[in-house]
Amino acid sequence: MNPMRTYLLILFTFSTVGLSLNSESISETNQKAIDAFYQKNWSQAETWFKESLKKNPNDPYANYNLACVYTILLSQCEELAEEQDIFRLLKKAVTYKKTYKGLMLKDKDLSLLRNTFRFNEIAGLSPKELFTNIFWYGPSPGAYGPISEIKFNVNGTFELSLVEFRESDGALEKPKYKGNYVWVSEKVIQLEFQKLPPAFPNQTKKRQARWKEDTLEIDGFDYHFVDSPDRCSA
C-alpha cells in the first residue's frame, strides 16, 4: 500500500474513534431544550427538559441541564426552584453519569452554588476539601448584604471581612482581618486571629469554631455563619 494512503487511513481511524468517544447522543426533547437554552429562552428550556424527565426520570443530561437553568434563574432572583430542588437534580445527574462530578465544579452556569456545602458534597469532595471551598456568611439584615464573611484557605489561613460604617461620615467600609487555623477534629477548628476588630468586646485572638454541614459557629460571635447569603432580600 502507498505510504501516504496508509498514513491517511490511520489518521481517519483515530479521528473516527475520537469522535465516537467524545460525542453524546441526546434525545429529541433534550435537543430542543438545549437549543432553547442557548437562545436564553429559559422557560422553553425548562419545559423541554421536564418533558425529557417525564420519559426518563433518571436521564443525567436532562437532570444536569435543568439544574443549570434553575441556577441561572436563581441568580436573577427568579425563584422557579429552590436550592434543594437544584441539588436533587444534580445528585441524580451524577448518580447516573459520574463525569458530571468534575464538570459541575467548573461549570459557570452553576457558579452561584459552587461555594455551598451541598454542592461540593454532591461533587464528591473530601470533608477538608469541601470546607475550604465554602464561603461562610453572617446575617443579611438589610440592603448591604451579609454583615460578615469568612473564607478558609487550603494553606491554613483565613480571612474575615466585615461590613462597617465609618463614624466620621457614615461611609461603608469592609475591613479584613486575617489569621491561621488548624484542625482539632473533623468538625472542630482552632482559629488564631492576627488582629481582631476593635469593636469586639472579647479580644481573645484564639477561638474555636465548629461546623456541621452548612452551618459554622465561632466562639465570640453572637450569630452563626451559613454557606449561602440572602441574595434577594433587598
TrEMBL record:
According to the lineage, what is the superkingdom?
A: Bacteria
Q: What is this protein called?
A: Tetratricopeptide repeat protein
Species of origin: Leptospira brenneri
